[in-house]
Amino acid sequence: MAKIAFIGAGSVVFAKNLIGDVLSYPELADSELALMDIDEERLRTAERVAHRLAAAVDARPSITATTDRRAAVDGADHVITMFQIGGYRPSTVIDFEIPARYGLRQTIADTLGIGGIMRAQRTIPVLLELCDEIEELAADAHLLQYVNPMAMNRWAVGRATRVKTVGLCHSVHGTAKQLARDLAVPIDDIDYLAAGINHMAFYLRFARGAEDLYPRLREVAPPDWNRVRYEVLKHFGYFVTESSEHFAEYVPWFIKADRPDLVERFNIPLDEYLRRCEEQIADWERMRESLEEDGALTHSRTDEYGSGIIHAIETGIPYAFYGNVPNAGLIDNLPPDCCVEVPCTADANGITPHAVGALPPQLASLMTTNINVQRLAVEAALTGSREHVYHAAMLDPHTAAELSLDQIVELVDELLGAHGKTLAQLQ
Question: What's the pLDDT at 285?
C-alpha cells in the first residue's frame, strides 16, 4: 500500500483532481492519503472531498488530514506539492501593484519577470525545508513538484538536495489539445515531440502520421486569446507550449508602457492572475458547499501526470509524460546545469528522462534569455544574496525593456521591503 502525501491539500479543486485520479486506478485504491495544509478550514474540506471521491469510485483508502507537514511526509512513498507561499494577499498583490507603479505591467507573474523572481525567493526556502524532511523521514520517496516558478524551484531542489523529484506542468499536453482543436484533427491522431524549458518549450514535431501539421498551423487564423503564440510561430518557426498570456511577459516585445497598441493588437490580458484569484475567492464559498454536500461526487480521470507516474512506479507499467529535470546532456545547446522540460518515462525504476539532442538555434537562444534569469534567482535563493535578486531582475527581458538599472534596484528594494519577513533571508 503506497502512502501519498499531498502538501498544500487546501488547494481543494486541484487536490480533488489528483486524489480522484489516484483512486481511479484499482492498484492504488487502498493507498494511504495524507492531506496536509496550514489552513484548517480548507483542509477539512479537502478531507471531506477525499472521502466522497473514495466512495464514488468504490475505493478504500486510508485518509488522514493534518497541519503537521512532518507527519504527512513520514514514511511517504510519494509527496505531491501544490502550495503558494505568501498566498494571494499579501504576496501576489504586492508582486503586481508595486511594479505597476513603475510602469511594469504583468499578466500572470508566477514564472519569470519580477513576479516570478519574487515568488522563487518565497518558495525555494520552503521547498528546501520540505526536502530536508523527506530526506530524514521518507528517503526513498518521489517528490512530484507542481509549484511555480517551476524551473527555478526544480533547479534549486536539484542543486541543494538528493531528493528524487520531477517538476510537473500540464502545458505540453494542454496546448497540444488546443492545437488539435484549431486544426480540427483528433488529438489521438497527433504525434508530437516538445522540448525546452518549462513554459518555454516548443513542439519540434507536430504531425499526423507522415503529414507535418506545421504548414496547416501557419494558415490558422489565430484565436483572439492566442495571438501572441501564433505571432511567435510566424517569426521563430515553432509553436510554444505555454499560453499567450504567460509567454507575453517572458519576452520584451508585447507588453510596453509606451505601446498600448501592442497590448490591444495581441489581446494581452494585463493583471489576468489578479482577476482569476479574485474570481476564485468570490466563488470559494459556493464551491466549498458544493464539494462538501452529501451525495455522489463524480470524477473522470484528468490529464494531470501525477497519478500516472505514481501508478507506473508502484506497478512497473511504463507511463510516458513530460517532466522538468536537470539538463545533464538532454538538450545539447542549453546549459548542462539548467532545468529542462523533456519527454520522460516512469516505471518501477523511477523516472527516466530522454535526450532530444540540439534545439533549433533560435529557440535555444530565446530560452537562454530566461535561463539567465532563472540561474540568478536560484543563486539568490540558495545564498541569500540580495545582489543576485537585482541581477536577475536586470537580465529579465520584460523588466529590462521597461526600466533603467537604477529603477530596477529601487523596485527590488521596495518589493523586498514590502514582503518583509517572508523574505527574511534577503533583508
Answer: 82
The answer to whether residue 324 scores a pLDDT higher than 90 is: yes
Helix or strand or coil: residue 318?
coil
- Residue 150 and residue 27: Cα distance in Å, rounded? 29
Q: Minimal CA–CA distance to 255: which of 426, 53, 424, 114? A: 114
Cβ–Cβ < 8 Å for 319, 346: yes
- Neighbour-count burial of 384, counting CB atoms closer than 10 A to its CB (0-12 exposed, 13-18 middle, 19+ buried): middle
Strand partners, 211: 208
User: Does residue 69 sit in helix, strand or coil?
Assistant: helix
Q: Torsion angle, CA of 15/82/286/225, rounded to 10 degrees? A: -110
Query: Which residues touch 250 (CB under 8 Å, ≥6 apart)?
Result: 111, 112, 113, 199, 200, 370, 397, 398
Of 397, 376, 410, 419, whose CA–CA distance to 113 is shortest? Answer: 397
Does residue 393 contact residue 115 with C-beta atoms inside 8 Å? Answer: no
What is the Cα–Cα distance from 241 to 173, expressed in whole angstroms? 8
Q: Check: CB of residue 190 under 8 Å from CB of residue 319.
A: no
The pLDDT of residue 162: 97
- Going from the C-alpha of 41 to that of each of 16, 38, 53, 168, 386, the distances in angstroms are 15, 9, 19, 27, 36
**Rounded mean pLDDT of 45-57?**
94
Largest CA distance in the chain: 61
Residue 395 CA to residue 397 CA, distance in Å, equals 6
Region 333-345 average pLDDT? 98
Confidence (pLDDT) at 294 = 72
73: part of which helix (H) or strand (E)? helix 69-73
Rounded CA separation 13/95 (Å): 24
Catalytic residue among 142, 170, 354, 398: 170
| CA nearest to 43, candidates 72, 22, 70 | 72
What region, left, alpha or beta, does residue 271 occupy, with left being phi > 0 and alpha being psi -120 to 50 degrees?
left
Beta bridge partners of 331: 357
170 flagged as catalytic: yes
For residue range 102-121, list pLDDT tens digits in order.
999 999 999 999 999 999 99
CA 425, distance to chain mean position in Å, is 24
Cell of 109: 507573474
Distances (CA, A) of 89 to 85, 152, 160, 258, 418: 10, 22, 29, 29, 12
Cα separation, 304 vs 225, whole angstroms: 23
d(CA 172, CA 176): 6
Instruction: Kindly tell me if the per-residue pLDDT of 425 is higher than 90.
Output: no
